[in-house]
Write a structure and sequence with these properties.
- This protein is mostly helical.
- It contains 3 helices and no strands.
- The N and C termini lie far apart (31 Å).
Amino acid sequence: MTADPVVALVAERFRIEGETEAKVAKVDDDAAVGAIVDPACDRIRELDDQISATVATSPAGVIGQVRALVEICIGEYSDLHDNTMRRPPGRHDRRRD
C-alpha cells in the first residue's frame, strides 16, 4: 500500500499557516506583514487546490482533507467564520484531552 499523499499535503498546509502566524505576530510593519503573508497565502492556495482535487486513501487522509476543506470553506475571511463549526456544550476535542 502506498502512502496517502493527502496526509503530507495537509501537514504542509497547516505547517505553513502556523509558521506564518508566528512570524506575523512578531512584526508591526504592514509592508513586512505583506511580505510574509502574500507568498504564504499563494502556497497555501496551491496546496488547498491539490488537497481538494486529490482522493484521500487512508483514514488519516480523509480526516486531514475534511479539516482542510472546512478551513477552505469557513476560513478567517468567510462570513461563516464565527457562526459555524462550534462544538456543542459538553463536547470536547479528543485531540486536546
